[in-house]
Design goal:
The structure holds two protein chains of two kinds. Chain A is of the alpha/beta class. Helices cover 40% and strands 22% of the residues of chain A. Chain A is built from twelve helices and ten strands. In chain A, the strands form two sheets. In chain A, strands 6-7-8-3-9-10 form a six-stranded mixed beta sheet, with helices on both faces. In chain A, strands 2-1-4-5 form a four-stranded antiparallel beta sheet, with helices on one face. In chain A, helix 4 crosses helix 6. The longest helix of chain A has 18 residues. Chain B has one domain. Chain B is 70% helix and 3% strand. Chain B has nine helices and two strands. Classes of the chains: A alpha/beta, B mainly alpha. Bound molecules: adenosine-5'-diphosphate and magnesium ion. The site of magnesium ion has 4 residues of chain A, from helix 1.
Amino acid sequence: MRLELENVSMVYQSGTPFSARALEDVSLTVEPGERLAVAGPVGSGKSTLLAILAGVETPTSGRVIHGTREISRRQTPPPGSIGLAFQSPENCLFEKTVYSDVSFAPRRQGLDGLEVRRRVENALAAVGMDPASMGQRSPFSLSIGEQRRVALAGVLAMEPRALLLDEPTAYLDPAARRDLIRQLVELNEQTGVTMVMVGHDMDELARFAGRLVIIDGGRKVAEGRAEIILTDSALLARHSLDPPGTVEFCSLLSAAMGDQVAPALSEEQTIETLMQIMEGKC
Amino acid sequence: MQVSNMVVGQYYPGTSILHRVDPRTKIIAACAFVIVLFMVNGFEGLAVMGAGLAAVIALAGIPLPWLWRGLKPVLFLLVITLAFQMFLSGGEELWRLGPVPVYRNGLVQGAFLTARLLLLVLSGSILTFSTPPVLLTDALGRLMEPLAKLKIPAYELALMMTIALRFIPTLVMEVDRIIKAQKARGAVTSGGGLLVRARGIMPVLVPLFVMSFRHADELALAMESRCWRGGRGRTIRRKLAFSKKDAVFATAVLAVLAASLWIGRLQ
Ligand SMILES: Nc1ncnc2c1ncn2[C@@H]1O[C@H](COP(=O)(O)OP(=O)(O)O)[C@@H](O)[C@H]1O
Ligand SMILES: [Mg+2]
């Protein structure tokens, strides 16, 4: 499903001395099936952007369009069409068992028992959890990383047409982060579900995103293919972001050799570049 | 429910003399105002008090929409008070509103009670409008200090109030988040019968409790690790001090109260 923002501005608590401008005239199109990343420094308005894109927050001005349908306070998105995971979604777990928490949304959608079961098992499998061994445990007895995956499975179980994730890897350990990103990419490739992810770890976004948007101070300051934005160290530095490690490595290498080394976005690509350089030297 | 549009706390930032008067002076003045409010009979006394209050509001530079915001929650109560008196008091009939008689006594009585209630709410609001919550609890703590001699933990009570106030915005924001997240998962938080609604609130209530306990745990740990040992032997960084401003303000309030008592008693 295509998601569009047209000239969206957002002011929290407007008309009070506490009014805070969070977004300023942002336009954005998320193409069906793509993996878009939204990056920017803390407080730049990323979470606000995601909430507005999902239709749970109404912008002060501007239009939000899901597919062909305009979203407003009265015209909310149809239930189950958008899967939204706020920052730390594990804070929203509430059922007695993992199974019942993940099945909450499909049960609310009024699906029959068999379909609910299929969805729960698929969703848990998609985040790398075993339904048989985890299903009957209490979500509150799990580690934060496991809780996070249960919460994400709860969103996936709706089988939404677009999945919006706000810093899904925050507070996870490095291995869990890597796994989660890999699982999200796999899910997108297998099912074609549109994905928007907010984050600020560029290594992670490099592994995830096809396209990237940078916002700073509530404004969209850059947008483009991931390999172009992520290799533009000057641009990233202007917005308090670090380039991915591989890009940084390549630019250090360039400086040391006095030679232009093409920046690489993945470890594999970096190794390839290194091999070529070494072959040239020998 | 649009929780995020709610103004958390009622403090309206400013630099007026009312904002700078010692909060203890304001608390005592508000208490005195309320006591006199219930001693005064007749509209003349109320009018003097109302004029005094209006002057204070103007002095504080609090805009009318903000005032309105503070009144909205009690508006219902005011209307009910007036209606009850007007329609149900009996006695001399003044006129008829359709088939319903309006009584003269009731109208006068109702108007008086409503005006009194209005002034009561406004005087309390002015206090919270012009004083940041933290200063307010500080001042309350100091005013309750003599109670410590009676083995009442005044300082701890004030601290509890401060902490509660400190966490209101946090919790409001979190409830807002939780409601939105659960709604996105299909939870209903409004509409339906009582049972449906009670069940609908679980997806919000459980996470809220879990989170509140976590906050409490973390705060307790943080306080302990910084050697918090209760109120005994504690010194205060933010000194509250009475000054000339307080004397001027207190005198003005006293004058208004005395005048309204005098006029009210003539009735
Ligand atoms: N509910 C809210 N009420 C008032 N201000 C808010 C609220 N949510 C966010 N803000 C403000 O909006 C700005 C953007 O916040 P946010 O979208 O959370 O940024 P990010 O996710 O990039 O850190 C910040 O300045 C923040 O203080
Ligand atoms: Mg955020």
